[in-house]
Amino acid sequence: MFYQLYELNHAALAPYRAFADIMRMVYANPLNPISQTPWGRTMAASLEMFERTTRRYGKPAVGLHDTVVEEGKVAVREEIVWSHPFCNLLHFARNVPSSHAPDPRILIVAPMSGHYATLLRGTVEALLPSADVYITDWIDARMVPMTEGTFDFDDYIDYVIEMLRFLGPDTHVIAVCQPSVPVLAAVALMEAENDPFSPSSMTLMGGPIDTRINPTAVNQLAKERSLEWFADNVIMNVPWPQPGFMRPVYPGFLQLSGFMSMNLDRHVIAHKEFFMHLVKNDGEPAEKHRDFYDEYLAVMDLTAEFYLQTVEQVFIKHALPKGELLHRGKLVDPAAIRNVALLTVEGENDDISGVGQTQAAQTICVNIPDNMRMHYLQPDVGHYGVFNGSRFRREIAPRIISFVKEHARSGKPVVKRVIKGGKSA
Question: For the PHB de-polymerase C-terminal domain, which residue ranges apply (predicted)?
Fold first, then answer.
């Protein structure tokens, strides 16, 4: 009943939240003389803090309306080009001139780990000037009716394969964090069948390929608990009146609680500073806080079967690096990958996927030629910085674009480049 109590508490606070929002606008209204006083700004800040800490954050908009290509600024249109019950494939169509040379087609597989694909807005934005970008937009499980059936780890792999076949040959796939395992599995299965639609390159970023290497707090929790413990303690049924009523899920608010508890002091300090910025009427830092937490606090539910199978296969059994991962009864063999270039990217301070966990893909994909593989370790970034932020835009994104262009099937082979910590090796 915990999920039901969570919903009941949210509903019970709704009138207080609405009242707080109204009074905040009263105290912050420039026509109100009190708004210019420290006391008025303190009241407005307190009311905003209450409203923001008790609200449910909905899925944010992507909000990418333009980008800059060689010919200048062009408009960007977001469109759904492929749809299944648990995922939409979004295309960021650029209105490039007819004279514009074709750019590489990139499929970004966003993590299905509690946050929406909009968390990768910065990733998409950094790649758009140089690539034709698609991204998986996973759907909140509580919004999918029970009549649509289940969604498990095998289905995830099937979705990736279907999307690659839909996009056609010479597509490049990027997996951010959690999907690194199912994406590598999907590519291995396609290569084993000599599928002409297997991607030209595969980029794995901060992913848990082998969580036995430098285990983090997340890995330790999975190691210390049995699968039965997870099923008994974190799986709940979607309450009424959500469309997915009675669907067993891993609620997003539980995942968010886990993420925040790992760096609780940092979040407390951030909210304290936000309050002080509001009192001082320092608008820009306060707005940056709102933008970040509007995104960070927006979470989605995962289907129980997908969550439990991921915990079991990735974090408990380590099935992929051990060569024991099965997809619908068929063994997934990373050694089957021969024609897909591999780029692995890690963050030096990653506290979710430890250093070496993603690079393990280079070890298990033994038959990829040396001139088609590369590893990069980004100094001074944590998990989030692997796919977003200034260092991603300045250091990581250009390397991805360069790697993708060099390994397009229509291009020429290139010399091996292995880079660690910003230094060639």
Answer: 206-407
